[in-house]
Amino acid sequence: MIPFTHFMLVGAILFCIGLYAVLTKRNAIQILIGIEFMINAAIINFVAAGQYDKDRMGGQLFALFAIVMAAAAVAVALAIILKVYQHYKTIDPDKIDQLRN
After folding, report:
1. Among positive and negative, which fits the CA dihedral 101, 75, 20, 58?
2. Which single residue of 40, 57, 76, 92 has CA 20 to 30 Å from 66?
3. C-alpha angle 61/65/9, rounded to 5°?
4. Integer angstrom CA distances of residue 19 from 16, 61, 83, 94, 99
5. What global pTM score does this model have?
C-alpha cells in the first residue's frame, strides 16, 4: 500500500504546476489547462483520503463529482474561448480590453 503522504506530494506538485501555469501563461487555453491541473490535484487528494473511509467511499464520490464538474467547466470555457477568438482574433487575455462593442 502506498503511503498517504506520497499521494499528497503528487497532489501538491500538480497543484503547483497548475498554479504556475495560471499565473504565467498568456494564452487562454494554457490557463485552462493550468486550472485542470489544479482540479486534478484535488481529485487525487479526494481519492487518497477516501481510502481511509472504505464503507461510505466519500472521497471517491467527491472525486466523481469533481470530474463531472471539471468536464462541464471545460466545455463552457472552450465555448467562451472560441467566441472570444471569433470576435477579437486572439486568445491572449491581456489583449482583450473590452467586453462590449
Report:
1. positive
2. 92
3. 75
4. 5, 25, 25, 18, 26
5. 0.85
What is the tens place of the pLDDT at every residue in 34-78? Answer: 999 999 999 999 999 998 887 888 889 999 999 999 999 999 999
Residues 6+ positions from 6 with CB-CB distance below 8 Å: none
pLDDT computed for residue 99 by the predictor: 67
Share of the chain above pLDDT 90, in %: 71
Query: Contact, 19 vs 41, CB < 8 A?
Result: no
The span from the CA of 90 to the CA of 24, in Å, is: 17
Residue indicated by cell numbers 506538485 = 13
| 31 CB-near residues (< 8 Å, 6+ apart) | 21, 22, 25, 93
CB atoms within 10 A of CB 36: 18
Give CA–CA dist 3/41, Å, rounded: 16
Q: Are 77 and 32 in contact (CB under 8 A)?
A: yes
Phi, psi of 53 (to 5 degrees): -125, 70
